[in-house]
Every structure is written in C-alpha cells, then in structure tokens.
Amino acid sequence: MVREKENIAEKPVIHDTLAGAQFERENTGLSAQNPEQPRHRGRPPKNRVPEEPVKETSRKTPAPSPSLPDEEEEIHPKFTHPASDRDVRQSVGQNKIKKFPRSQLHYERDPEAASVRIIPLGGLEEIGKNMTIIEYGDEAIMIDCGQAFPNDDELFGVDVVIPDMTYIDQIKDKLRGVVITHGHEDHIGCLPFLLKDYAVPVFGTKLTIGLVNGKMREHGIPERARLFGVVAPGDVVSFGQISVEFIASNHSIPDAVALAIYTPAGVIIHTGDFKIDMSPIIGPMIDLPRIAELGKAGVLLLLSDSTNSERPGYTASERTVGQSFDGLFERAEKKRIIIATFASNIHRVQQIVDKAEAFGRKVAVSGRSMINTFSIATELGYLKIPDGLLVDIEELNNYLPEQLVLITTGSQGEPMSALSRMAFSDHRKVEVDSGDFIIISATPIPGNERMVTKIVNRLLKLGAEVIYERMYDVHVSGHACQEEQKMIISLAKPAYFMPVHGEYKHLKKHAETAETVGIARKNILLGENGAIIEAGKNGISVVGSVPAGRVYVDGLGVGDVGSVVLRDRRLLSQDGILTVAAVIDIMNPRLVVGPEITSRGFVFVKESEQLLETLRAEAVRIIEELAKRDVNDINIYRNEIKEALSKRIYFSMKRSPIVVPIIMAMSI
C-alpha cells in the first residue's frame, strides 16, 4: 500500500520527545493517559564477559547513498533530547530521516560499493531475543529489539533474558534508528532497556507502536524519551545510505511486515516472522508480488524465518481454528467456555469474539497482558467488539454458564497466569468446576510442555472438560513451513542466503531447504550471535566478532545476575543451606558464644537433631583447636569450619548444602 502525499504531510511521523502524548493521539489512537509509575532503576545491561574490541578488516570507502526523491517528507531534521535527569548516551542529533511512498524510491546498486555488514546480536541458535544490526559506512540500523523468557531449570528467579548490548554502546554515534517487524515480545521486549539509555527513533506499524507504547508506560519510560514513527506497508524510511521498505506480511499478530533494506552494496530482504496465509483474519495477505519484484531486480541477501523449518508442507490458515471453534461451541452446550490463548494473537481473539456473538454469549477477559492487548487492539481498531458483548469479569455471577465466554492468558502454563491461578483455585473471580469447558488454544513452546501438562491435570481434577494440544484444530502456527520457505526463496532469488530466528537445528534444516531450490551451498551462511558478516560483490563471509550473549533481568536488576549467582541458586535449590553462627574473642582466642546451626532446605530440624548436634560439636572442635594455636584471623576460622562441615555432611549423607559460617570477632 502506498500512502498519498497529502496524508504524509498532514501527520508527521516522528515528534520531538516532549510531544509524546500528541504522538499517541495522532498516530496510534491511544489515549494520552500515562499514570505515574515507579521509575525503572535497573542498571544498563552489562556484558558478562570481558569486553573485546571489534575485529576489523580492511574496507573500501563507502559509496554514495541511493538518490532520494524530490518530494520526500523530512520527518525531523534534528532529534534533540530535552534536558533529563538521566544519562542518555546516544548521539542522533544531526541525523535527517525521511519517509516517502515506495513509488518515489529511486535506487541503484553501486557495483563498486563496499560490503554491507550484518551483525546478529540475538535470535540465532535460540528462540527469542531477536536483534540484528545492519551497518554500512558510518551508519547503522537495528532490526527488532526483543527479549526471551527463561524456559529452562538453570535460570532460577530470572524474569527476562535480553541481548548483550555492549556493541550498541560501541556504535552509539552511528546508530540511526530501530525498525520493528511486529509486536511480539521476542521482537520488542528489549526496547525499554534500550530506550532508557539511548535516544534512538523506533519505526513500526500502528499496532506495533501501540504495543511498544504500552511497554514504555509499564516500565515508566517518560514520554520525552519516546521517538516513535508509525509506518505502513509500502512506506520507505531513509536513514541516509540505508533505506528500509516495509512490506505487508502474515503472522500470528496483525500488522507484521517484512523489510527490504537498501544499501549501496545491494538489497537485503528480512522476512521477520512470517507465514503465507491466503485468507488472513485481519489485514492483507503477504505481499508476494512485491517480493517477486525485488527478486527480479536483484536481491543481495535473504534473511528468512527458520522456526518451522523442520515441518513439511504449508502452515494452515488461521481460519481453520475458527471452523474448529464452531464445533466446540456447540459441544459446550450449557457449560461456561474458557479459552486460553496468546494475548498477542488478535486474529484468534477476534474469532473467539465472533463465535461468542454467533452463539449468544457474552465475553469477559482475564489476565493482565490479555487485558492490555485487548484494550490497545480495540482502541486502534484491530479488534471489532459489538456493543454490549463485552462484560467485566466482576459481573460473571450475573450470567448463566451457557451465556459466557472467558478469554484468558496461561496457554503456556505460566505459573502466575490467570489460567494457572484458576487451576490452583487461586483466582479471585473465577472458580473452575464441572460446569466449565476449557480450550487451550495453543501448542506448548518447547520447554513448556511439563508446565502445561500440570495445568491440564489440575483442571481435569476440578471436573472441567479440557481441550488441549492437538485433540482438535484449536491452534495453528504463525510461522512458515518448508513449502512456504521455498516459495519465498524462489521469489526473492537471493545471491546469498542466511537463515535466522531459530535453534541451530532449525537454521541447518532451512539451509538444506534452500539448496533444494537452487541456492548453492557456498552461498549459504549459518551465522551465530556476535558474528560480523560482510556481504557484497566479493561474496559473503564472517570477518570478525563482537561481544554477544545473554543479560539476565531479575526484578529491577539488569545484568547483576551472572553465572556465580545462578550457581548458588542452583545449589540452594538442590541441597539447601546450613549456617553456623559463633562469636570468638579474637584478642585472646576462645569461643564466646555458639556455635548455633540453622538449616534451610537441608534437613528438617526436629527430625535431625542428632546430626545437627554432631555438626555443632565438630564446629566447636575446630574453633578450640585454632584457638589453642592462637589463630586470630577470622577468615581462617570461617574456611576451616566450612571445609570440615562440608566434608562431614557429604560423607555421611552424600549431600552438598551451601555451608555459610557467620563468625563474629570481638575483643574482651
């Protein structure tokens, strides 16, 4: 879709940061309400390994940028960050960023241009925290800025995982902007941590920016720190030598886009997360003709979503879920229907709303993320809710079970989700019983199967009828399968191919699929996070590396949880902790008070009094022996007690609790 020139002139895409409320009203339709929230006090992300310099190779002088049309819109001649009590370390002050319709783009590749650099900082050999840097000359842009959720048993207490942004600090003077492919957490979740410290403009479609704005309010990021630009498929944003075209795509959330990135060295296509849905619920079909046009003109590199690369065939349309809902709504008869799904799957939510209206049921919503997304999508016009259909969860008791549909979070078994609280009878408004018909409209993400099974078992014990996993067609993926991946590669006809977004096995399988449609093995690169990849007239290769890894967010702390802390948490979870407290006269070495032994998660004190008395006697023996030798170094007492008690416990019980001697020195 190409916007009319008049419309572009009427609505500036980027406002000064002080005009954040005006931006929300004009560009997203969101209200300007911004309730006071505690400021995020987390430190800037820190690299967990020593910083290493970027390994450079010789490079030619950058070629001139592609020519821009005469009638482009200058979005903002200078990005100025107003006076703030925070240290904003990004320099985007002198950049000129322009937006114009695709029809006005005049692009020619420079055959003598230097290579373009692609630097993934997240999203390779893993699921989530997608972040990629595109560099040319003294300019750079970021594609997506996502987070990942810890889904293994080694990240005790960690709330969120974000990319290591050490390299962002190294290129802060050349970073021109962030472009977002869609509004899922693994593509936007890291933005609050980025924008807290760098005044960099962010571009995305209307729904994406609406969801980003919600995250900014949630994290207490003030409006003056938000430089957001709303784009639509068919728009082009020029950052100078790098320009980005937004192309309509399909995914499990509306307003998803693919990207065509124009550089003097050639065009890079980034698919984002995608599928080919011939009959999407909301929005247009993926713009395959545009991808074919780009392929005909010449594509240097294709970066393509690999999540479903192991699955043959095609991904089913979202409409198949609606057809399954018809039969399940009929089957529910006199029961209350509770449907758990991803909060961001607005296509699914719209179908549930439509079925509820068709079957004469009211709709209620539960779960913080579901309520937030529901509200934003409704205000922006993506969700169509008939008048009188939506009821507050407080009013559930005013209706019969057969009159209600409850849409909730918790399809992945998250411990604090609404469905989980219902399953464990901990929800303040909803009590599950034999009168409930529950549909889990999602497939467990790898690693979440055990949590989902636990929730299903609890719901079944409460008497509810539960539809889950593949019992019926109640879920379809938002990612392309092999035949769709082949179609994109065949249309784009890239000179080089690099699979992205997936674990190594997904990337490897996608590379094999690319070979079946004519991409030579030598022209396929399997990258890894932190690799500096150069693509151009001399081919594609890895020429260096930058710091890359995972930064853990625990509460308000960012980067202060590392391998040592996680190791201690693991040990605490396995064998518990034993503390030994005593007071020693250090000037005239002797035991004054104690030792007192306390166990937490090691043994039950009342049933292990004999063991604890033995350990206490051992501690007394060590202190008295050291005192006889006139030892007055408190650290020696601590180390000797820790070593002796650890050995005694292991030999007698084959356990290794954390032993913490608390030895206080005094002088009498």
> Any idea what the CATH architecture of the largest domain is?
4-Layer Sandwich
* Computed structural class: alpha/beta
Please give the number of β-strands: 27
Compute the number of helices.
Answer: 17
- Taken as a percent bin, the fraction of beta residues is 15-25%
CATH class of the largest domain: Alpha Beta
Average pLDDT over all residues: 83
Strand order of the largest sheet: 1-2-10-11-12-13-14-20
Shape: globular
Oligomer description: single chain
Q: Unreliable stretches, pLDDT < 50, 5 or more residues?
A: 1-94
CATH superfamily of the largest domain: Ribonuclease Z/Hydroxyacylglutathione hydrolase-like
- Roughly what percent helix? 25-40%
Radius of gyration: 29 Å
Number of domains: 3
CATH topology of the largest domain: Metallo-beta-lactamase, Chain A
What is the first-to-last residue Cα distance?
Answer: 85 Å
The major sheet is characterized as:
8 strands, mixed
Structure description:
The structure is a single chain. The chain is α/β, with parallel strands linked by helices and 668 residues long. It folds into three domains: 69-313 and 478-558, Metallo-beta-lactamase, Chain A; 320-467, Rossmann fold; 576-666, Ubiquitin-like (UB roll) (Roll). Helix content is 28%, strand content 22%. It is built from 17 helices and 27 strands. The strands form five sheets. Strands 1-2-10-11-12-13-14-20 form an eight-stranded mixed beta sheet. α16 packs antiparallel against α17. The protein starts with a helix and ends with a strand.
